[in-house]
Design goal:
six-stranded mixed sheet; 24 strands; 16% strand; 32 helices; alpha+beta
Length: 953
């Protein structure tokens, strides 16, 4: 189940997103019916444009050529998902997804990473209720190799006991990370689906359970592959830069010979019964910082005619700050820290759920009552025409953004095919949304969202009287292990001399970078314009030297609070009016503060962009910082901190800055003590001093010309001339280098341990930036990096391990981090430190660096394909006063890095003897082993952690 969340917190450590362990939203969105500005009409969502053919073996093939890209995406969508997990084997389809990245008869283990990451591409997969999908994006000259590889793993996957056991251990770590370590993981991952559904296989969690994963066998997975991984149960989707005739020949060559088993795919078409009565249930879990309430109803499957109306209803209910749930529970009543909902439609059934994570001091029962009141409003009275228009505009703009890259277009097609069997369904969706009426919304609310059909779920902290609720086990399923096809002779990796060789890459298709126009307005505002061809979207990004390192001592959070409050009222508009206008435009506008800079961002369809930019300018130039809006933001921030401080990974992230920087400006973080100390006068003074055109940069990217950008910039910002002189930059924000520390934050009952090694690093303008960037990619930049190889792939100790160079204007914060079960925290810490040490002590080979260079260049090229990605690249060069020519020079500078430069840079700047270590978890399970290796370690109880100073005490 995937809840769409409306963030109520846009500050600091993205605390609102931490509530559900999700990535922070890129933009804050709007808030409530008021003075409505109608969005310009005529937004055109281009059709996907795929051609279809079917091979004699039943494989359906969809292709779309795009000559404007240098890449190609290959996706294979199998008609098997978690609903097909056999009885007693929940999590099986997801486990199998992991195994598909191992060996085939012609490809040794991890070859898929060699074929993708090592040439500058990417690969991944996901398992949903009804599908398991695999996708790769690579330079176009590697297309044939990917087709060969995908066909090889469809037809001859090698499954052996060591691989099976190792990947099962990785999935267990993923379970601990997603379900156990996240305070709301059990609620959304386990308890909500098992409550909503009574007969449907959708009631089982896609990730399964540790017990049922342990019960699976190698023979089970071999039979699973034989049953479901077949050409007549798959869609092959190819999009990008290719020759159609040559592509057709390759597909015939590699996929055409594949055979289907004689055993049919097991029947799995459960009809979920209509609810006979409402149900109320309470679940408990450890480390739940704030109570939660969920209302849920069974609705319709994806292909049902009522899905568009329910989708628009969901938008009215919870999309953005003008939505009914946000306006009522968060903004007006202030009883919820976060709201959200999801219209979850699958092949066989669907549901709609609404949630409230309560604010401090408010109960789940209050949330239930407030949610019920809003649902009753939908049933009892028509929504307004303005609300309907807002929801439609947002959905249409979202569909436009979902067509921005070839990967996006292929994915949209894949979902439509899996859920409807029709490629036309994705293109029809926009028209279906536009056709929804006010009467449709009330009709579906009255039909599906009734008290009789409702599940009411409350989620509370476990205690002695109410122990943690247990996941349901031994849940029945329509498919059994006995229904699976016989495994047949197992495939084995052939001797190298007997393998079919990989096709050789074709001629390279070089990526291009746009020419960036660069000029200034009379008030000193620098304007950069990076035009692109593609979908009609435009992005704007306005950046200021106004980061958290400029916060006054003892008032950490002023920069973040200033950014958050920009969308909460101007001299002529209230916060609800701003939110309504944003959503009427189908736009996104938001602001956030980093360590060194603050950014205000906007993204809109081209025809709505001039109005969007005018609104953005009003927010920047004329904020009011009303006391009541500050109080709302403070309350929401404090609730977000309560949730963050219940999670090992979030605690480690906030602690590590203090460990490395101490009491210097870079070490400060928002805390439960600094937030209440901020006043409206503090925020107004920060804005007046630091939000100034003379030191700011405005970047346009997307469907806009330099001349049009100049005219819009002049109109929106040309009259902006703040009084007074700009303040001096903060001197030495990184402070003096400190001795390394080993710090354990003891959190009894933690579902996992977070392990972070950190070293005071370098600035973005350091001469060794590129050698360190390449070295960091080798260490922890992707699935095939050294850290991930040692910790996940070889030992199964984590779901993933990575590192970050963390450059800043002054000395940056290098980190290498992962999460693991508590019992192996000390082992994982040793592995991380050993890999950091190795880079400074041993010269990597050219063979080591070649794929890492390609990975960096490929990721850079993919960033150029979205208007926000391109705008971010241009803005980051400007922020550090780097020349715009660096955009075109990036690939060359990465290629020029030598192995000797990498070793020398790590030895000088990131030696392991300067590394600090922060571990957050249940210390009873690892402290003795860790203390034996690090006798000088510091142990701080989670409840006593003091982030207001460098001592942490």
């Amino acid at each position: 189940m995937k809840f769409r969340l409306t963030a109520t917190l846009k500050v600091g450590a993205a605390a609102s997103a931490l509530m559900l362990g999700l990535a922070a939203p890129a933009f804050a969105e709007g808030a409530a019916p008021a003075a409505v500005v109608q969005a310009p009409q005529g937004v055109t969502v281009p059709p996907l444009g795929f051609a279809r053919r079917v091979l004699p073996n039943g494989l359906e093939v969809y292709t779309a050529r795009d000559a404007d890209t240098s890449n190609v995406t290959v996706q294979v969508w199998y008609k098997v998902g978690s609903k097909d997990d056999p009885a007693g084997r929940s999590g099986f389809a997801h486990l199998f997804e992991h195994l598909m990245f191992k060996s085939t008869k012609n490809l040794p283990p991890e070859t898929f990473d060699r074929l993708t990451e090592d040439v500058g591409g990417s690969n991944n997969a996901f398992t949903a209720d009804d599908t398991t999908a695999y996708f790769e994006t690579v330079p176009a000259n590697h297309l044939e190799r990917m087709l060969f590889a995908e066909a090889d793993r469809m037809g001859s996957l090698v499954l052996d006991e060591p691989t099976f056991v190792a990947e099962r251990d990785v999935v267990k770590e993923e379970y601990r990370q997603r379900i156990l370590a996240n305070p709301y993981g059990r609620l959304f991952g386990l308890f909500v689906p098992e409550t909503i559904y009574k007969e449907s296989p959708y009631r089982r969690p896609g990730i399964g359970s540790i017990e049922e994963l342990d019960s699976s066998s190698l023979d089970d997975v071999r039979r699973f592959h034989a049953t479901y991984y077949r050409p007549d149960a798959a869609y092959l989707i190819v999009a990008g830069n290719f020759d159609q005739a040559q592509l057709d020949r390759w597909i015939d060559q590699y996929f055409g010979p594949l055979k289907n088993p004689t055993t049919p795919v097991p029947t799995n078409n459960v009809v979920e019964p209509e609810p006979t009565a409402p149900q109320n249930v309470t679940y408990y879990a450890p480390n739940v910082p704030l109570p939660a309430a969920v209302l849920a109803w069974p609705t319709v499957k994806y292909a049902d005619a009522d899905r568009p109306a329910l989708t628009v209803l969901d938008g009215i209910l919870s999309s953005g700050e003008s939505s009914r749930l946000y306006r009522s529970l968060v903004y007006d009543k202030q009883i919820a820290a976060q709201i959200g909902s999801t219209p979850d439609f699958s092949q066989q059934a669907g549901n709609l759920s609404a949630l409230a994570i309560m604010a401090q001091g408010h109960t789940a029962e209050e949330g239930v009552a407030a949610l019920n009141a809003e649902i009753a409003r939908l049933r009892d009275a028509p929504v307004t025409a303005d609300e309907l228009s807002e929801a439609k505009n947002e959905l249409v703009a979202s569909a436009l953004r979902g067509r921005e890259t070839m990967d996006d277009r292929a994915t949209a097609l894949g979902f439509a095919l899996i859920n409807t069997g029709s490629a036309a369904a994705a293109d029809e969706e926009v028209a279906q949304i536009q056709a929804v009426t006010v009467a449709d919304i009330q009709r579906v609310a009255s039909k599906y969202l009734t008290p009789q059909r409702q599940s009411t779920i409350t989620f509370l902290a476990a205690d002695d009287a109410n122990p943690a609720s247990i996941q349901k086990m031994n849940v029945g399923a329509p498919v059994t292990v006995a229904d699976l096809a016989p495994a047949g002779p197992p495939a084995v990796l052939l001797p190298e001399a007997e393998r079919t060789p990989l096709p050789q890459p074709g001629a390279e298709v070089a990526p291009t970078t746009p020419t960036v126009a660069d000029f200034r307005l009379d008030n000193g505002l620098r304007v950069l314009v990076a035009p692109t061809d593609g979908v009609p979207l435009v992005s704007a990004r306005l950046s200021f030297d106004a980061g958290s390192s400029n916060d006054p001592a003892g008032k950490a959070g002023i920069a973040a609070m200033t950014a958050a409050l920009l969308t909460q009222g101007t001299k002529t508009k209230t916060a609800p009016e701003i939110a309504t206008q944003i959503e009427q435009l189908g736009a996104s506008i938001g602001a956030a503060a980093g360590v060194d800079f603050s950014n205000v961002s906007a993204n809109a369809p081209s025809n709505a962009f001039p109005t969007t930019l005018a609104l953005m300018a009003d927010l920047v130039k004329n904020p009011t910082f009303a006391a009541e809006e500050l109080e709302r933001q403070q309350a929401q921030t404090l609730d977000g901190l309560r949730v963050a401080l219940s999670q090992p990974n979030a605690i480690a992230g906030m602690t590590v800055g203090r460990v490395v920087y101490g009491d210097a400006p870079y070490g400060a973080t928002i805390t439960q003590q600094t937030v209440p100390a901020i006043t409206p006068a503090d925020v107004a003074a920060f804005h007046a001093a630091r939000y100034r055109p003379s030191g700011a940069t405005l970047v346009f990217s997307g469907d806009i010309t330099p001349d049009a950008a100049r005219a819009l910039a002049q109109q929106a910002f040309g009259d902006w001339r703040p009084a007074g002189a700009a303040p001096a930059a903060t001197a030495n924000p990184a402070g003096q280098a400190l001795a390394p520390r080993i710090v354990v934050v003891n959190q009894p009952g933690a579902g996992q341990a977070a392990v972070v090694a950190a070293v005071r690093g370098v600035s973005r303008t350091d001469a060794d930036y590129f050698p360190l960037t390449v070295g960091n990619s080798l260490l922890g930049g992707g699935f095939s990096s050294r850290l991930n190889q040692e910790i996940r792939i070889k030992r199964g100790l984590s779901y993933g391990a990575s590192s970050s160079l963390g450059v800043r204007a002054d000395a940056g914060l290098f980190t290498a981090a992962t999460q693991t079960k508590n019992e192996t925290a000390d082992e994982v810490a040793d592995l991380i430190l050993a890999e950091i040490a190795k880079l400074g002590a041993e010269t990597p080979s050219q063979a080591d660096l070649a794929p890492r260079r390609a990975t960096l260049i490929g990721g850079f090229g993919r960033s150029l394909e979205t208007v926000d990605g391109l705008g971010t690249l241009v803005a980051n060069l400007a922020l550090y006063d780097l020349p715009m020519s660096d955009l075109a020079d990036y690939a060359g500078r990465v290629r020029a890095v030598t192995p000797e430069q990498v070793q020398a840079a790590f030895a000088e700047h990131l030696p392991v003897n300067r590394a600090s270590l922060v571990i957050v978890g249940d210390g009873s399970l690892f402290l003795d082993a860790l203390r034996a290796k690090h006798p000088n370690l510091e142990v701080i109880e989670a409840g006593a952690l003091n982030l207001n100073n460098g001592s942490l005490k």
